[in-house]
């Protein structure tokens, strides 16, 4: 049994996608980040960076005590290695998958996240920041679009954790001011991943947990005004 400490963000969706695809038994533990639940001692014990998602594996492969893992990319890799699913076993296939997983973790996620912040949530519009991150998001869409131009169905051959990591960050493409029609190969891949039954189940589950994500003045303080004192 896996406990998934989760909220309905792109990084949270990644792990739900894996668990729905793999059939690994899991239990959702909601962490409402708009209410500050990411700062509770019980959550910080397993996720010291006060960010969702995190998991607790109650049956780790070493047979020891329950094992916690934080950071969405690390969780995807842990689950793929545990189940021998959604990551190739050969050297070249594994490394291609990991390169694109880290591309998402180091590029698409952080840049699209800054796009979301400055376009949607910043209290004062900053045109330079908005342009900077909208353009960088577009560049990253272009990188993936070019990679998929050879007609492959998925990012690293077969469906893998690379696809699960990237798809949730493309879902909010309208809010990111991106037109999927400008990226036809990416759009084809996006539709294919979205049509997978496990994808539909994961997003339906998310809607049951959080039907109206809202950033108001109170949640803005929790989400966007952290500094070193937050972790002291």
TrEMBL record:
PROSITE patterns associated with the record: GST_CTER, GST_NTER
The residue range of the signal peptide is none
Superkingdom of the organism of origin = Bacteria
All copies of the GST C-terminal domain together span 90-213
| Stretches assigned to the GST N-terminal domain | 1-87
Give the family this protein belongs to, as stated in its UniProt record.
Belongs to the GST superfamily.
The name on file for this protein is: Thiol:disulfide oxidoreductase
């Amino acid at each position: 049994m896996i406990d998934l400490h989760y909220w309905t963000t792109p990084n949270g969706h990644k792990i739900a996608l894996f668990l729905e695809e793999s059939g690994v038994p899991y239990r959702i533990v909601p962490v409402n980040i708009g209410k500050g639940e990411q700062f509770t001692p019980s959550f910080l014990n397993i996720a010291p960076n006060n960010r969702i998602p995190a998991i607790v594996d109650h049956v780790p492969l070493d047979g020891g005590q329950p094992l916690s893992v934080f950071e969405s990319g690390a969780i995807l890799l842990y689950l793929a290695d545990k189940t021998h699913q959604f990551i190739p076993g050969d050297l070249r296939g594994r490394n291609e998958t990991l390169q694109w997983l880290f591309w998402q973790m180091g590029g698409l996620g952080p840049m699209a996240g800054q796009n979301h912040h400055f376009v949607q949530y910043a209290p004062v519009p900053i045109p330079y920041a908005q342009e900077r991150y909208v353009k960088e998001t577009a560049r990253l869409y272009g990188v993936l679009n070019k990679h998929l131009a050879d007609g492959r169905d998925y990012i690293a051959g077969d469906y893998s954790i690379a696809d699960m990591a990237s798809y949730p960050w493309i879902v909010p493409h309208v809010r990111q001011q991106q037109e999927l029609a400008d990226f036809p190969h990416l759009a084809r891949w996006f539709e294919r991943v979205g049509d997978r039954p496990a994808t539909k189940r994961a997003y339906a589950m998310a809607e049951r947990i959080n039907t109206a994500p809202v950033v108001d003045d109170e949640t803005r303080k929790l989400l966007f005004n952290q500094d070193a004192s937050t972790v002291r």
